[in-house]
UniProtKB/TrEMBL annotation:
This is Alpha-ribazole phosphatase. It comes from Petrotoga mexicana DSM 14811. GO terms for cellular component: cytosol. The keyword Metal-binding does not apply. The active site is at H17 (tele-phosphohistidine intermediate), E95 (proton donor/acceptor). Keywords: Hydrolase.
């Protein structure tokens, strides 16, 4: 990314956490706090050399075990001289709150709560899962995080270990596409310049 704009141009690297047992089953996973299946996940470790080489000013995770364990595994591999990088927890980086649909599959929802499920699929900004949040509510908390940190006069980059839905939401905002258009795999890495409204997926 181009830093020609000076110290106000902060790059955020967004990494989707490693695999959990519920990701493998294709279930909606939001507030359930489960650990990684393995900290030696090749989908994460493939980025280590690249991440170690970046000049970080801060690192964040969402407070969920799957994001914290992913970040700690990266942090553990940093050079000793980089071990003073501050790590923060910010719940604004959490996955969508799926409410009563937590740990349900799309197939189950289609068979058992078809009308509400289809309303949510077609208009996620307006409809929420029972006791959950709309995409509009999620967007509000996510934008508040980026507006806050992008305004700080920092030189370097910030690593965010977060969740698939949040990355998809940001992609849809930046690229003005449907929330469902971008597929975000486990261990995917993206670079976002919030001020320039520029977001790219980093490929191997």
């Amino acid at each position: 990314m181009d830093h020609a704009g000076g110290i106000s141009m902060m790059d955020f690297y967004l990494l989707r956490h490693g695999k959990t047992k519920y990701n493998e089953k294709g279930l909606l996973l939001g507030k359930t706090d489960v650990p990684l299946l393995s900290r030696e996940d090749p989908d994460l470790l493939k980025w280590i050399d690249r991440l170690v080489a970046i000049s970080w000013v801060a690192m964040f995770h969402s407070g969920m075990k799957r994001s914290e364990e992913t970040l700690r595994e990266i942090y553990r591999r940093l050079d000793e001289k980089k071990k003073d990088i501050p790590i923060y927890v910010d719940e604004r980086l959490q996955e969508m709150n799926f409410g009563e649909w937590e740990l349900k599959s799309y197939d189950w929802l289609y068979q058992n709560q078809r009308e509400d499920f289809l309303n949510w699929l077609h208009s996620p900004y307006d409809y929420a899962p029972p006791q959950g949040e709309t995409l509009a509510q999620m967007e509000k908390r996510v934008i508040s995080f980026f507006e806050e940190w992008a305004s700080k006069e920092l030189i370097g980059s910030i690593l965010l270990v977060t969740h698939g839905g949040l990355i998809r939401l940001l992609w849809s905002i930046i690229h003005q596409t449907s929330f469902y258009e971008k597929k975000v795999e486990i261990g995917s890495l993206f670079c976002l310049n919030w001020q320039k409204r520029n977001m790219e997926e980093i490929l191997e």
